[in-house]
Amino acid sequence: MNDYKFGNFIYTLRVEKGLTQSEVAKRLGVSAAAVSKWENGSTKPRYELLLKLAEIFGVSSEELVSGERAGMRDEPIGEVAEEVFEKRR
Fold first, then answer.
1. 69: which residues sit within 8 A by CB, 6+ positions away?
2. What are the tens digits of pLDDT across the range 13-33?
3. Low-confidence stretches of the chain (pLDDT beneath 70)
4. CB 49 within 8 A of CB 40
5. What is the spatial distance between Cα 17 and Cα 2, in angstroms, rounded to a whole number?
6. Rounded to whole angstroms, how far apart are CA atoms 82 and 32?
7. Is residue 6 a contact partner of residue 44, using CB atoms and an 8 Å limit?
8. I want to staple 23 with a disulfide (CB 3.0 to 4.6 A). Which of 19, 54, 69, 78 is the partner?
9. Buried b (16+ CB within 10 A) or exposed e, 52-65
């Protein structure tokens, strides 16, 4: 798994859903610091948390692990994702 790609994807999905790190953490029963570490690529969630994350964000577990939506590999990223990446630079 590409940690940077995975982290950016988690961040993008969270922002698209309008959720804070604390809100995601509360739904998963983890700390906001844990969500932050996933987003910056320093750690990865356990398998059962990956499944819950996929459910929260409305993506498949395969999409979550790959760090991209199915069918989007060669397509331009959406406006929200573009804004997210600009803010993270």
1. 59, 63
2. 999 999 999 999 999 999 999
3. 1-2, 71-89
4. no
5. 23
6. 24
7. yes
8. 19
9. bbbebbebeeebbb
